[in-house]
């Protein structure tokens, strides 16, 4: 599936993040008979978050396949299908349920090419609705990006905008290796400009969403929007924040982060997964090992999920992951050298 | 030659050349594994391996109805399946010796040996890991209308994994062209089926997934061939999956660490007396397909092939250390 790369002249429309994902899947289904969708209640129900929507009406139940509630079996069937010539997109109803399928994702999909010495390929996309903020409590709200990011053989993406949700999904679909795409549930209804037609957002390239001189925030998924909100507030105080949207957890775009830290001398990592042993640990260590270390004017900060399951009570739930005011306060302290 | 109703299925169904080739493959498996075991003892192979000596009829007879377009998924005890599906022993030994000439360029070893060009999607280090993958291969065949059938090998131990139950259910609901071949060798490592499995025959599990299930003497080549051929034919007709249980026995321990504390010498000897290769030889002789000298010639040829294979492997190329991360991802496209 060699698609033309994106043409900047192309028309855009306002679509929601969910609509952008659906558009990508619809285009892929129309274009390549090897593409199938699999998942729980993705057919007439339209998916738990209405992402697949009406695709079953357009492409039929053989290509938009409802699976039994069998995450391990279903994911394994997707692995076998990818190994033998299909291009499945497998939706986990919630990323939390991928824990039931870790065997197939981690032991099989991720390692097949390597174990077989390059003689096999598993071109498979796992879609994972993730994150907290929906009141769904501890088993429907987790952020496992770092878990999957720890597995060589997988690629792990976290789109934060409708444009990237479509472009990264199409890039994942074109990729010859298994790709895990974390879609933040709170972003599904977010609107944004989405280009027409087939385009891909490069895997492994971060995006600088806001340029600034004083401080770098590396964030992913919904944290990008919270970081941007914090940056706007801080701008009123004369603190000029650069916001980097990570987009890809594996591979990580080290170059973009290093270049930014060399410029600003200050770094905050903001992510929703549990803070300890998370994405921020990797980015902090990478900066400590890089030439950017000499440019640091302050300690690196990590803002991540608290060391607890996601609670049900709405105020507790908000307190469990970084919010815009938390980012703003941390950035202010760091900029004023109060850390 | 008259082939009446008392003639075993395999003799009736397959021509003499096919049957001679089957015997050759059974000997190849036996001598390959003896050669691998010997090489391990001499320190030429590291790690571990799981030998299937005593189970050769199951591997070869099950693969008999398949073409190179058909697929199999295999298990940690997968050398026999690999040879049954047409692999060359030289490249298999090269894999065991960790050489670039091996099927997986030395990255997989015994537990991940595969030959995708012949439709062998690979052994598997995870008990039950290959079962959903086989169902996925069958989905591809149905979706793209290729007509291919997948045989999914697994052991008695795997029948208590969740993956087994989920995958059989999906295969049945979607009526996929897959045949589940359980090689019941009585023990999941040390734990007997009596102590691990609620049903007497694993084939009974098929009833829960509305598919045919049959238990056969897995050391009787013809019995296995008949059951699997019928299941493959059914799958090819689009009538869905089946489960065939081959009752068999591994003469060796689970792996190289096994001290055989969970079974008696008498039990092992009683199964060695039911050697599937000797039984098949006798059957071929009794029905005039192959006399003793013909069988001896095939046996000698298999021995030579294994010796040549070991020599080929010993002369293989070691991977370059700098290539340790090669094959994690596809090479970047230019």
Strand content of chain A: 15-25%
Largest interface: A-B, 43 and 47 residues
H/E series of chain B: HHHEHHHEHEEEHHEHEHHH
- Gyration radius of chain B, in Å: 19 Å
How many helices of chain B? The count is 13
What is the number of E strands of chain A?
14
What does this structure look like?
The complex is a heterodimer of chains A (339) and B (334). By secondary structure, chain A is of the alpha/beta class. Chain A folds into two domains: 15-195, Rossmann fold, CATH 3.40.50.970; 207-335, Rossmann fold, CATH 3.40.50.920. In chain A, 35% of the residues lie in helices and 20% in strands. Chain A has helices at residues 17-31, 55-59, 71-83, 102-109, 112-115, 145-149, 162-174, 222-236, 254-264, 279-289, 314-320, 324-335, and strands at residues 12-16, 35-39, 64-66, 87-91, 125-130, 155-157, 179-184, 191-195, 207-210, 215-219, 241-245, 248-250, 267-274, 301-305. A seven-stranded mixed β-sheet of chain A has the order 3-2-4-5-7-6-12, sandwiched between helices. Chain A has a five-stranded mixed β-sheet with strand order 9-11-10-13-14, with helices on both faces. A two-stranded antiparallel sheet of chain A has the order 1-8. In chain A, strand 6, helix 7 (162-174) and strand 7 form a beta-alpha-beta unit. Chain A is globular. The model of chain A has no long low-confidence stretch (mean pLDDT 96). By secondary structure, chain B is α/β, with parallel strands linked by helices. Chain B has one domain (23-311): 3-Layer(aba) Sandwich (Rossmann fold). Helices cover 44% and strands 9% of the residues of chain B. Chain B contains 13 helices and seven strands. Chain B has helices at residues 9-13, 16-41, 56-63, 79-84, 89-96, 130-144, 162-173, 193-196, 205-208, 221-236, 265-272, 276-286, 292-314, and strands at 71-73, 150-155, 178-184, 187-188, 191-192, 213-217, 242-247. In chain B, strands 1-2-3-7-6 form a five-stranded parallel β-sheet, with helices on both faces. In chain B, a hairpin with a 2-residue loop joins strand 4 (187-188) and strand 5. In chain B, helix 2 runs antiparallel to helix 12, helix 3 (56-63) runs parallel beside helix 10 (221-236) and helix 6 packs parallel to helix 7 (162-173). Chain B is globular and about 50 Å long. The model of chain B has no long low-confidence stretch (mean pLDDT 96).
């Amino acid at each position: 599936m060699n698609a033309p790369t994106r043409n900047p002249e192309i028309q855009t429309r306002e679509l929601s993040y969910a609509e952008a994902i659906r558009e990508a899947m619809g285009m892929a289904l129309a274009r390549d008979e090897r593409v199938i969708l699999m998942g729980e209640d993705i057919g007439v129900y339209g998916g738990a978050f209405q992402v697949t929507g009406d695709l079953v009406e357009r492409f039929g139940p053989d290509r938009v396949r409802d699976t039994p509630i069998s995450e391990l079996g279903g994911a394994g069937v997707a692995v076998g299908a990818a190994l033998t010539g299909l291009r499945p997109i497998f939706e986990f109803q919630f990323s939390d349920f991928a824990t039931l399928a870790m065997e197939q994702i981690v032991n099989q999909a991720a390692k097949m090419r390597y174990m077989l010495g390059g003689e096999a390929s598993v071109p498979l996309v796992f879609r994972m609705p993730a994150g907290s903020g929906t009141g769904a409590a501890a088993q429907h709200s987790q952020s496992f990006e770092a878990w999957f990011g720890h597995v060589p053989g997988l690629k792990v993406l976290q789109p934060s905008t409708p444009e990237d949700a479509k472009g990264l999904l199409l890039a994942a679909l074109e990729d010859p290796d298994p790709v895990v795409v974390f879609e933040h549930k709170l972003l599904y209804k977010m609107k944004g400009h989405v280009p027409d037609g087939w385009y891909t957002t490069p895997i492994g390239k971060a995006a600088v969403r806001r340029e600034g001189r004083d401080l770098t925030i590396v964030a992913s998924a919904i944290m990008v929007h919270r970081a941007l909100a914090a940056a706007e507030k801080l701008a009123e105080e004369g603190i000029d924040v650069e916001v980097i949207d990570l987009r890809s957890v594996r591979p990580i775009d080290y170059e973009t982060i290093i270049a930014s830290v060399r410029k600003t001398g200050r770094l905050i990592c903001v992510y929703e997964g549990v803070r300890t042993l998370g994405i921020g640990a990797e980015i902090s260590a990478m900066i400590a090992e890089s030439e950017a270390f000499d440019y640091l004017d302050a300690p690196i900060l990590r803002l991540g999920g608290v060391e607890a399951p996601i609670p049900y009570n709405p105020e507790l739930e908000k307190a469990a992951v970084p919010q815009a005011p938390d980012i703003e306060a941390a950035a202010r302290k760091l900029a004023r050298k109060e850390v | 030659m008259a082939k009446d109703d008392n003639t075993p299925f395999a003799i009736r169904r397959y021509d003499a050349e096919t049957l001679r080739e089957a015997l050759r493959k059974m000997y190849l498996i036996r001598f390959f594994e003896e050669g691998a075991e010997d090489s391990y003892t001499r320190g030429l192979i590291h790690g571990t391996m799981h030998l299937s000596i005593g189970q050769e009829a199951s591997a070869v007879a099950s693969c008999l109805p398949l073409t190179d377009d058909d697929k199999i998924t295999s298990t940690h005890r997968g050398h026999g399946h690999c040879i049954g599906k047409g692999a060359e022993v030289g490249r298999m030994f090269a894999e065991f010796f960790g050489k670039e000439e091996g099927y997986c360029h030395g990255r997989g070893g015994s537990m991940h040996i595969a030959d995708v060009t012949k439709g062998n999607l690979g052994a598997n280090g995870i008990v039950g890991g290959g079962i959903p993958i086989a169902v996925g291969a069958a989905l591809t065949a149905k979706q793209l209308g290729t007509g291919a059938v997948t045989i999914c090998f697994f052991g008695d131990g795997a029948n208590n994994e969740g993956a087994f139950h989920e995958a059989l259910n999906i295969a049945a609901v979607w009526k996929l062209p897959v045949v589940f071949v359980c090689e019941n060798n009585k023990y999941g490592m040390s734990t007997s089926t009596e102590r691990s499995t609620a049903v007497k025959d694993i084939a009974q599990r098929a009833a829960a997934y509305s598919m045919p299930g049959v238990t056969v003497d897995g050391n009787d080549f013809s019995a296995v061939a008949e059951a699997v051929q019928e299941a493959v034919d059914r799958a090819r007709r689009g009538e869905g999956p089946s489960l065939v249980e081959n009752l068999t026995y591994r003469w060796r321990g689970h792996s190289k660490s096994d001290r055989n504390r969970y079974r008696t010498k008498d039990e092992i000897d009683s199964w060695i007396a039911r050697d599937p290769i000797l039984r098949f030889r006798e059957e071929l002789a009794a029905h005039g397909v192959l006399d003793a000298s013909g069988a001896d010639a095939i046996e000698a040829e298999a021995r030579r092939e294994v010796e040549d294979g070991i020599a080929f492997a010993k002369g293989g190329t070691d991977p370059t250390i700098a290539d340790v991360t090669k094959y994690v991802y596809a090479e970047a496209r230019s």
